[in-house]
Amino acid sequence: MREEDSFSLLHYNTFGLDMRCRTFMEYDTVEELEKIVSSGLLSRSKWLHIGGGSNLLFLNDDFEGVVLHSKIKRIEILEDEEQKDDVLVRVGAGVVWDDFVEWCVERGLGGVENLSLIPGEVGASPVQNIGAYGTEAKDVICRVEAMDVNNALVRVFTNEECQFAYRNSFFKKNGNYIVTYVTFLLKRESAYHYNLEYGNMRKALEGVKDINLKSIRKSIVAIRSAKLPDPKEICSAGSFFKNPVVPLAVYERVLKDYPQMPSYEISAAERKIPAGWLIEQCGWKGKHLGRAGVYEKQALVLVNIGGASGKEIWNLAEEIVKSVKEKFGIEISPEVCLVK
Ligand code: EPU
């Protein structure tokens, strides 16, 4: 276990905010987490559990509380009978998400390859119900083990109990649980159907001779790298806003003026509109406000162009929300978690 006071979070938030927390605690096992929770520390002070820090925006200059981070790194196959097509894999919350995806692809286990290169750690995957290219974490999560911070007991949640929704879950709505392990239900490649239906996936795979887990992962990595900033070069938190889901009447009203507007059908009564498109139409793509900017290749991504504070990034976000509201009458809201 590691415990440090006045700890710099510069390398623990992908927005690259140069700030500190009062205490940083990093644990390696569930038993160590149990000790921290049982000590009562979390009920005495403000606390925050982070993963890769890839979906957070700190609004204040420093975090006056405890920041927790998991280093539970175990990956184990629970049932490995050669003749079975379904394989259950239990993964520690502290495993880097993309390392897990690579681990699966290398072993011919299908289910998470479309989620290649998503930043962050496994523990955040059920919280945020991460998703990309037609797959969401909820499609492959079998159960989630999470510790109740009120009594230090681990509860096992079934997929249904996680209450998954678009970038939302029970864990996001109820901040009293810390995810320790996630068990995924994957399929052996020989029995697996690839998910290639999303947008430009088939096009991206056009020239590819053998379509398999490895080539799909390679294509997803290429699509993401072309559109999203390389975290090693530009600081961001991926998509800053959620794609708004609007009533059919609102969609039809906007479509009249913008017949080229992209959208996805959610139900007979609702449509999802890409926030990136709405923001681009408002003229924000590639624009800066102070030291915060809108990424030039994907308007859904806000970037720190160097030395920005959380407030500066939030200020830009608020201006964007305002202009989308004014132009389209649609309210967009952040996908990233705002930390006060
Ligand atoms: N679009 C624009 N201008 C832009 C950006 C997008 O017109 O600046 C249009 C595109 O042309 C396309 C549509 O919007 O017609 C959708 O764009 P894209 O396929 O890039 O996906 P997205 O809706 O912007 C979502 C997720 C991403 C995920 C991609 C691919 C959310 C909030 N974001 O973005 O997730 O990688 O789909 O599945 O749902 C993340 O959550 O951090 C993230 C990157």
Furnish the topology, listing elements before pairings.
Layout: E1 2-8, E2 20-27, H1 30-38, H2 41-44, E3 47-50, E4 56-58, E5 63-70, E6 75-77, E7 86-92, H3 97-106, E8 109-110, H4 124-128, E9 131-132, E10 135-136, E11 141-148, E12 154-158, H5 170-173, E13 177-188, H6 201-204, H7 213-227, E14 235-239, E15 245-247, H8 248-257, E16 264-267, E17 270-272, H9 275-281, E18 288-289, E19 292-294, E20 301-304, H10 310-328, E21 337-339
Question: How would you describe this protein?
Answer:
The protein is of the alpha+beta class and 340 residues long. It is 26% helix and 29% strand. The protein contains 10 helices and 21 strands. Strands 6, 7, 8, 11, 12 and 13 form a 6-stranded antiparallel beta sheet that branches. Strands 1-2-5-3 form a 4-stranded mixed beta sheet. A 4-stranded antiparallel beta sheet has the order 14-20-19-18, covered by helices on one side. Strand 11 and strand 12 form a beta hairpin. The longest helix has 19 residues. The radius of gyration is 21 Å and the shape is globular. Bound molecules: uridine-diphosphate-2(N-acetylglucosaminyl) butyric acid (EPU).
Short structural description:
This protein has 340 residues and is an alpha+beta fold.
Shape: globular
Largest sheet: 6 strands, antiparallel
- What compounds are bound to the protein? uridine-diphosphate-2(N-acetylglucosaminyl) butyric acid
**Mean pLDDT level:** 96
